[in-house]
Design goal:
The structure is a single chain. The chain has one domain (2-154). It has helices at residues 2-12, 29-40; strands at 44-46, 51-54, 63-67, 71-73, 76-77, 86-93, 99-107, 109-115, 118-125, 138-145, 148-154. The strands form three sheets. A four-stranded antiparallel sheet has the order 2-3-6-7, covered by helices on one side. It starts with a helix and ends with a strand. By secondary structure, it is mainly beta. Helices cover 15% and strands 41% of the residues.
C-alpha cells in the first residue's frame, strides 16, 4: 500500500527537489509567474488568489503557491485548466534568500489544515487518483517534509 502511494505521488506531482541545487533561485515567484503570462498573453488579468503565501514546510519561512486557474489570458479564464483541474506550482523560500519550485500538481483545489500537530495539504483531485472512474473528487492528504511532498492518505 505504501508503494502505491509513492507511485501515485510521483505520477501526480512533478517533484523538483533533486533539481533544487541546479535551479536558479527566484527573487519572487509571483513576479516570475506573472511576467511569464504577460509574455504569453496580449491581455492578462490576475485574480487575488493567483498567489497564496504560507509556510508549507513548517520552517518559519513564508512560501508560495500559484494557482493557474486564477488568471485570465486573452479573455479565457485558466486556459491550462481541464476536467482534471488546474495546475498549481509550489515554491519554497530558502533562508539564503529566494525561492525555488518543488512541485506542480493538477488539482481542483486544496485546503491547508492542521492534522495531528502538522500542517498538511488536502488536495481535491480527479477521481482517477483514487482509482475511481467517476464520482466524488479524490482527497489526497500530503505533507511537505523538507523539500518533498509525502502522501499521507487518499480517499
Amino acid at each position: 500500500m505504501k508503494f502505491l502511494f509513492a507511485v501515485l505521488a510521483v505520477s501526480l506531482l512533478t517533484v523538483a527537489a533533486p533539481a533544487s541545487a541546479q535551479q536558479k533561485l527566484l527573487s519572487d515567484p509571483e513576479i516570475y509567474e506573472k511576467d511569464h503570462f504577460r509574455k504569453q498573453c496580449a491581455a492578462v488579468e490576475f485574480a487575488p488568489d493567483f498567489i497564496t503565501r504560507l509556510d508549507i514546510n513548517n520552517d518559519g519561512l513564508i512560501d508560495a503557491v500559484s494557482n493557474h486557474g486564477a488568471y485570465t489570458c486573452d479573455g479565457t479564464k485558466g486556459p491550462a485548466c481541464n476536467e482534471e483541474g488546474c495546475p498549481y506550482n509550489f515554491y519554497l523560500q530558502v533562508k539564503e534568500g529566494g525561492y525555488f519550485m518543488i512541485a506542480t500538481a493538477r488539482i481542483f483545489s486544496y485546503d491547508f489544515i492542521k492534522r495531528f500537530g502538522n500542517m498538511v495539504f488536502v488536495f481535491k483531485m480527479a477521481p482517477k487518483y483514487c482509482d475511481r472512474a467517476g464520482g466524488a473528487p479524490c482527497e489526497m492528504t500530503v505533507r511537505v517534509r523538507g523539500t518533498k511532498f509525502v502522501t499521507i492518505s487518499r480517499k
